Amino acid sequence: MSTDQKTHPVEVAGLKRDLILFEVAPGVTIAILNILGDTELVTACAIELAEKLSQIEYAALVTAEAKSIPLIHALSVETNKPYAVLRKTYKPYMGDAIQAETVSITTGKPQTLFLDAKDRDVIKGNKVILVDDVISTGSTQQAMRAVVEKAGAKVAAEAAIFTEGDKAKWEDIISLGHLPVWLD
Q1: Which residues 6+ apart lie within 8 Å of 49 measured at CB?
Q2: Per-residue confidence at 102, pLDDT binned at 50, 70, 90?
Q3: Confidence of residue 1 (pLDDT cuts 50, 70, 90)
Q4: CA 141/CA 80 separation, integer angstroms
């Protein structure tokens, strides 16, 4: 990592990390949590989130592609619950997929989430937990909720490693910590 790159130190699940600061819009900077390849952090967070979810009745876990896939996999192993990943692109093998659109804070562009036809059975008629690495604006959560509801499932709870921004907005989210947003 370049020494001139600014970071924000965090401690989560008993581990310390320095998150790179990134300007997502003019005058708006966030700390980027990238759990891809950080097996130690993913495992520790999955263990802590599983404990926090242990008193909730649910049948499956759901996340959006891509950075939170390692987390949901580790959480699935920890909780012994199946999971579904909402994809960002449609592939013909996905069959009659269910979809909803959102705008990501990190890309600033609209994106569509798709539930593969094979994963409908994983969530249909069940209570599910929506899982993400970081919940910032809530747009991904909104799209995940829309897909899950179209599939005939109910959201039992929402969980993330971190929430970000207005802390009061995320009181109902089960998380391991909170990140600030820097405004210039």
Answers
A1: 71, 75, 78, 131, 159, 161, 174, 176
A2: confident
A3: very low
A4: 23
Q: At what angle do helices 69-79 and 39-53 cross, to 10 degrees?
A: 50
Length reported for the chain: 184
C-alpha span between 148 and 177 (Å, rounded): 25
> In whole angstroms, what is the distance from residue 179 CA to residue 184 CA?
16
The fold of 39-177 is Rossmann fold (3.40.50)
Residues 168 and 28: their CA atoms lie apart, in Å, by 19
Domain boundaries, the chain: 39-177
Report the C-alpha gap between 184 and 176 in whole angstroms.
27
Region 58-66: what's the mean pLDDT? 95
CA quadruple 91, 94, 96, 99: dihedral sign: negative
pLDDT at 105: 59
Percent of the chain with pLDDT over 90: 82
Residue 50: both structure tokens together: 């599983």
In this structure, the strands spanning 174-179 and 15-25 are unpaired
Is the pTM above the cut of 0.90?
yes
pLDDT (tens digit, 9 = 90+) per residue, 14-53?
999 999 999 988 999 999 999 999 999 999 999 999 999 9
- Give the closest residue to 56 by CA, choosing from 173, 168, 162: 173
